[in-house]
Each structure stands twice: as C-alpha cells, then as structure tokens.
Amino acid sequence: MYELTMLKSALADGTAFRQCTFEVFARRLQNERRYGVVAGTPRVLEAVTDFVFTEEQLASLTFLDERTLDYLRGYRFSGQIDGYREGELYFPNSPILTVRGTFAECVILETLILSIMNADSAVASAAARMVTAADGRPILEMGSRRTHEAAAVTATRAAYLAGFVGTSNLEAVYRYGIPGSGTAAHAWTLLHINEDGTPNEEAAFRSQIETLGVDTVLLVDTYDITKGVQTAIGVAGTELGGVRIDSGDLGVMTRKVRQELDALGAYNTRIVVSSDLDEYAIAGLRGEPVDSFGVGTSVVTGSGAPTAAMVYKLVEVEGHPVAKRSRGKNTVGGGKRALRTHRATGTAVEEVVYPFNAEPPTFNNLNVTELTIPLMRDGEIVEGLPTLEESREYLAKQLVTLPWEGLALSKDEPVLSTRFVGFDAQ
Amino acid sequence: MYELTMLKSALADGTAFRQCTFEVFARRLQNERRYGVVAGTPRVLEAVTDFVFTEEQLASLTFLDERTLDYLRGYRFSGQIDGYREGELYFPNSPILTVRGTFAECVILETLILSIMNADSAVASAAARMVTAADGRPILEMGSRRTHEAAAVTATRAAYLAGFVGTSNLEAVYRYGIPGSGTAAHAWTLLHINEDGTPNEEAAFRSQIETLGVDTVLLVDTYDITKGVQTAIGVAGTELGGVRIDSGDLGVMTRKVRQELDALGAYNTRIVVSSDLDEYAIAGLRGEPVDSFGVGTSVVTGSGAPTAAMVYKLVEVEGHPVAKRSRGKNTVGGGKRALRTHRATGTAVEEVVYPFNAEPPTFNNLNVTELTIPLMRDGEIVEGLPTLEESREYLAKQLVTLPWEGLALSKDEPVLSTRFVGFDAQ
C-alpha cells in the first residue's frame, strides 16, 4: 500500500518522474553464514514484465485519485535492470540488483522484487550448504508439504539451482523440467492389511515392485526395520533399487541396514535416508553408508533463515546519491556495480563495489570477474540470459573459488569482504 | 510424486478403493510453545474442491499408466472432511482434520492439505503470541517482502485471523477484505532533494500531508529523528496523525519522541514503531509510549517456526485402525474426534480425543465443547462455516480460556494435555 500512496503523492507534487536508481542488497548474511546465493532473478524479470493492474483491482484501490489510477492503468515497467546473475554468490552490501527508471515506475516494484529474491535466495543459500555437506551424494527435495503451496514449487527450483538432483514436487517437474522422484509413503504399507486388520508389509512391497519395478525404493521403517529389510529383499531379490529409512538414529540404522543388506547379498541396494535432515545432520552422516538424502522441511524453510533479508533502497535521484542515516541502517548512496577479484589459482579474494557509471578499477596480478550484467533494457528482458541448468553449473563452479573456510558450516564472518571504491565519503 | 506412484500401485493391486481415514495432526508444538492456532481450513476446503488435473498436466506425468491417468482425468474428491474450525487452538496429537474416502481419492491430497495448513497455522500461531504481547495495542502486518509473493497474501490472512488489525498487502485487502494501511517508506523522503542534491525532508513531509491529509503517519527517522519530529510537526501542525520510527533503540527513541511531541503540543500524534519486531521485542516495549506496531519479517516467517509441522497420516483402513511403529513417530490408529473440557469459570482443562464413531465421554462438573465439526460432505463444502471475521473473534475468545500460564511467551510444555479415551492399547 505505501508504494501506491507514495506514487499518489509523487504524481501530485511532480517528483514522480525523477530519474531514480533503486538497489537490492542485504546488510548481512543470515545466521552468520559465510556466503549467500542469489536466486530468483529470472522470476523477478518475468514478474516485472507481467506486472499490470486489472480494472477489477483498480476498482478496489479506493484510496487513490483518478490521476494515480490512470497511471496504474497504463503501467508497464520501461526501465533498466542490471545485477548479479542467478547462481552468483553474494555478501553483505553486494549490489545484487540495480533498478533504474522513474521514481513512479520503480517504487511500486519493491514488494514484488523483494518477495521473490528473498524467498528464492533463502532456499538456495541453505540448499547450497546441504549440497556441500552431502559431499557428492545426491539430495532430493521433498519439502513441499512444509511450506505454502505456491512457495513449494519455487523452493524446489531454488534447491535444484543449488545442486539438489531432483524433487517430489510434480508441479516443479512440469514447470521447470526438474527431475522428479518419489515412490511410497508409510500410508502405502499401512494400507496393506489382512482381513483381520493385521499388517501385511509383504503385500505392500510385492505390489510396489510389481507396479514400479525392482529398481524402486521400498520404505522399510513402518514397523520393524530389520524385518522390513528382510521382507524387502525377500520380495524383490538382491537387485532391489533401494530402501528408505525415515526415522530413528540414522547413523546407527544405516550401518545396521547396510550390514543386513550385504549379508542378504543385496550389495547394490542403495540406502536413502530422510527424516528432518538439515546440513548439520547430513554432515553428521558423512561417514555412514548413506547413498542419497531426502530433505524436506529444512530446505524449503531456509534451514533457520526463511528469508534472505534483502532490501530495496533508493540510492540515486537525478544523478545525486541519496542515503538514509538511520542508526544501524546506514547505506551508501549512488548506483553501483561490482566485480570480484581472483588469484591466478582461481581463489576469490574480495568483492569490489564501484560507481555504476565509472570505469572499473584495475588490479595487478589478480583476475577480475564483472558481477553486474544487464538483465532488462527498456522494460524488455535481455536475450540470452543463463538457463536454470547453466546457473546451476555456474554456482557449483563459484563455490569452488571460495577460500576453503568459506564452505564450513559453522557460524563466522562472510568469507569475502566487500570494498567500496570511488565513492565520496557520505 | 509418491502420491501418484502409490495411486498407480493401488489401482493395480485393487487396494485403491479401500475406505480409508487420514488424519492431520502435529506431534509437537513448534519452538516449545504452549498452544498452536489452526489456520487455513477454509483454504484447504476450497483447494480440495478445485483440485483437478488438466490435460497438459496429465501429459507431463509420463511415469503413469493409462489406468492411472484415466482416474486422474475424472478426479474430484467426493469424500468427507471433519475437523477443528479455523481459529481453534490445537495441541500435540489434536486430530485437526479427519479426511475420509477411498485410499485413491484421499492419498493424493496430502501435499495440498499440509502445505496450506502448515503455512497458515505457522503464521497464525506466531501472530497470536504477538497480539498477546501487544496487550491491546494494534499491530499492522507489513511483511510481504520477506516471504514468497503468494505466501505473503495468505500470511496476511493468517495474521489477521490471529488479531492483527490490518496489512500493507493490497492483494490481501482485495481478496479477503482485510483493512489496508500504508503511507510512505524512506524512499519517499530520499526522493525529495534540493537541486544541489542535499536532502529536503520538509518537502517530503509537506507533499505527503497535502496528498494524504494531516492524519497520515510521517516516517521521521531517515536522517535525524529529533529534527524529523520537529519538521513533521512544523509542517503538519499538532494534529498530525502519527510518526513512525523504524530504527534504533525503540524503547529509548519512543520515550524521547513522545516527550518531544508533547513539548510541541502534539499530544494526540501517535507513535508507530516497526524495525524487526517479534513477540519478544513487542513485549519489551510494553511499558513504552508506543501506540501501534508494524510487524514484518517475524510474522510472515512464523517467528522462528516457519512451518507448523503437521503431518497427514493414514489411521484407518476398512474400519481397522492402522499405525506405524517407527521409533519416535508412533501414532494412534483409528479415526478420531476431540472435545475440550472447561470449568464453570470458562477455563480450559484438557483435550479429550475419542474414536470417531463413538459417543462422546461424559464429565461431571465440567462443560464440554465439541471441537470436531463437519467441514465437507460428499465433496461439497458444508454450508454456513464461520467467516474469517467470525473465526477471528472465536480465536480471541478461546485464548481467554487458557490457564494463565498458557499466554506466557517463554518455552514450556503445551498448556493443555491431550488424553485418548476409548482406544485399545495398540
């Protein structure tokens, strides 16, 4: 609402068409993490392109005057967006997006842009840590039931960006082409009872094998895990694809189940574990015979940081830098670009932020990567932006460039610092 | 995906049309809170009614056979749903929703039902604690930018259910009729600069007053708060509606600003505070001259508990109770109803859960409230269910029935216990 009341006031006092620059950045990394992952950029660009007001919506805006309603009726963003590509790493004060246009056209995008960037980056930032913790073993996203029904779909996308290999969410499969995965829940085993109501796990397993094939994953912990594994191999034979364990002490259980599978000759049957895993639980299972992980709640809720705390701030008006002076919330005025320096080995050294219209600073003996790329020109999405797959590969490569302590899970300072070059003291 | 692979297997082995009962419940309250708030029920009922598969979606389900696709093509839920009304309190093991029908029609609703109930109940459960902490002073929801763009709208609804008085989210105003609120951000003040680029806070305030009237709320902390307040009253006069403070030590600042406003004769100018408030920060401001609160991030993210941890479990097949035996995840089989007992004074005593088809147990000297009501019959939403406004009033009344320690913010056991009566030892 304040976006539209500001628009109304700005149309009235003549400031609506001042050329402005807004910036998306984060003052800090959540939970004292060491890096953040930019996600949601393509969704932002599409949402900005589609951001229009219907007559029905306009009719509900009874606090606006005719001039403002007219403006909104014809609204289409026609400005410029530059910023970090999706899958890029970010740190406190990284200028993640720079949005330029009139005050009127930029100010009403705040909530749209931030809600997408904050939600998607929160998930990707958590998911990347889980992928690191899994140390090469695949992770499936299966958290749809633990977040808003629409957020579930985009959370899956962000987790895949960060290196998850698949998802249980079929809408994400349909919409984004992410590999799907899923076999059975406990309900499947519980459904199979004898006529007297007693459990019949064997019938459940037999039916699942018949329909989904011997390569399926059987959920073995509905009753007794040891018996469950025995029954599973009894029914499926030693070529069973996998067993899933969703409860108990996963370290102890996976060792026991691996021994049991091996003793039964099912050397190739994989062990899938789920049950409230987060990056720490995954790391704790690093030495155990786990073949893949299923992660739900913790990834869709950002593992303790469900939002990325990005803000959208006015930093420049008609070429003049502007900045607020609120205690603890100081900002640096002026439009910005950023680059990252790397040693010859590839290791990242620091992020350098410089004025949007300045020449980039130069560095001796360091390689330079420009982080700010054009994303939208005159309201049109720039062609040839990276696909989800490309951004996924890009992120994987960027993580390798961090100094080794950057991938540790414990709390610490951001692993790269951000230096401002070429700004006046403000 | 596993919902549909289970459906495929069940259609193949003949179990798809077994009469089943699924139950939504929570094993625990998040963050050791003392009660939870049921929210999302009407959204679930609508979503279940609208849950169909398009031809385009069906074409993407390449892992299904023709029989399963045919089933989905004709799918409409035709079963029964009973459960807690929206705005009801819940505790561990409360049977929040009971879904009855064939295995096929019930099993594919898990993700849909849980994603809505978990998201909405997480927000409502956090918001109710903030309302208690605010002790009668109004709270506005303004967290849209800190959660997924669609989750923002329903989070607003859940916060309003829990007693928030309004929102900055216009889509929620439009869709749910929640009162809207919003005036200006820091960008508004920053936009108003002189030709040489120096700040002109006075111009920003003057323009806002001219457009929005003297009853508006001016944001006074962009530069220096003391000067900001002085400028605000200088421009607006002593009848200014309010000032908002969004940074700094809010306790100290509100006292200083109140003194300043009073010294300027603006006795009726309200003080609105925002800036990362949660229930604890609100409680900490109880003794300060705050007139209303704006709450963002913490409410839309459930204040540390972004999901309600509700699960959807098969509890009955063809009249037989079923339950899994996984360690730490035991459940009680069989369909269930619940009632709550109250003393003559109105204070709640306990929740009693009994078999779905049994007569309710009776109690001497205690009043009994049935918690389980019919919500859907043969796939149709029951008529006359409470409106959002009615549920909001209902919740406010229920909170008063809790033993006094139930409204404390600190961690503890659930304030009411849940007793199972009439179930066989399983």
TrEMBL record, chains A, B:
Name of the protein in its database record: Nicotinate phosphoribosyltransferase
Enzyme class (EC, first level): ligase
Pfam families found in the cross-reference section: NAPRTase, NAPRTase_N
Keywords on record: Glycosyltransferase, Ligase, Phosphoprotein, Pyridine nucleotide biosynthesis, Transferase
Residues annotated as domain Nicotinate phosphoribosyltransferase N-terminal: 1-118
Biological processes annotated in GO: NAD+ biosynthetic process via the salvage pathway
PTM note: Transiently phosphorylated on a His residue during the reaction cycle. Phosphorylation strongly increases the affinity for substrates and increases the rate of nicotinate D-ribonucleotide production. Dephosphorylation regenerates the low-affinity form of the enzyme, leading to product release.
All residue ranges annotated as the Nicotinate/nicotinamide phosphoribosyltransferase domain in the record: 140-327
InterPro entries, sorted: Aldolase_TIM (IPR013785), N/Namide_PRibTrfase (IPR041525), NAPRTase_N (IPR040727), Nic_PRibTrfase-Fam (IPR007229), Nic_PRibTrfase_pncB (IPR006405), Nicotinate_pribotase-like_C (IPR036068)
NCBIfam families in the cross-refs: NAPRTase_put (TIGR01513), PRK09243.1-5 (NF006698), PRK12484.1 (NF009131)
EC number(s) reported in the record: 6.3.4.21
Superkingdom field: Bacteria
Keyword Glycosyltransferase included in the entry's annotation: yes
Function of the protein: Catalyzes the first step in the biosynthesis of NAD from nicotinic acid, the ATP-dependent synthesis of beta-nicotinate D-ribonucleotide from nicotinate and 5-phospho-D-ribose 1-phosphate.
Record bears the keyword Magnesium: no
Catalytic activity: 5-phospho-alpha-D-ribose 1-diphosphate + nicotinate + ATP + H2O = nicotinate beta-D-ribonucleotide + ADP + phosphate + diphosphate
GO cellular component, one term: cytosol
GO MF annotation terms: glycosyltransferase activity; nicotinate phosphoribosyltransferase activity
Pathway: Cofactor biosynthesis; NAD(+) biosynthesis; nicotinate D-ribonucleotide from nicotinate: step 1/1
Family: Belongs to the NAPRTase family.
